[in-house]
Specification:
With about 190 residues, the protein is mainly beta. The protein is about 10% helix and about 40% strand.
Length: about 190
Amino acid sequence: MWGLMDYNGCMYALASKLIPLPVLSLQTGATVATVKGLVLDPATLEVVAFSCEVGGHAGPETAILLRDVRELALDCVIVDSEDELIEIDDIVRLKALRSEDFALIRKPVVSDMGRKLGNVEDFTINTETNKVQKLYVKQSIVRSFFGASLIIDRTQIVDVTPKQIVVREATLKAGVFSPEVVPDIYP
């Protein structure tokens, strides 16, 4: 399966599944590029473009702005035409974001209480807003024996810095439970 998921009426894409996708032109029906990376805005955690490889040869770095993507299909990215490919250096904002070289994969995740939670292993993108929706955090080997990977929603993210991602500590005061927290175990 390619990384598209339907949840609560929204479509989500797993970032690791987007990287090798071909980019198809609706005009010609041919493959015009291959997605080789994501250009993220660290301030908003929004994917603004796909960096692409054209024809497998070295040349100026090209990209497709997400606003120019017609559709994200299960096995390809569809654009209107090859004209949607742009050189990253031609757009100032994109060039600045690319020069920051911000990447979520392998970025350390810590709680706002200073506890190390692990490193980002993958993330999902809401295809309607183009924003990172969930982080999949791989814990250390010792912690992974006691539980699976952590899944952190964007609402839990407190701060994103060049060195780490800070998330809200999941705490619950003893004796205080909301109905949403306590599972309904009695019929």
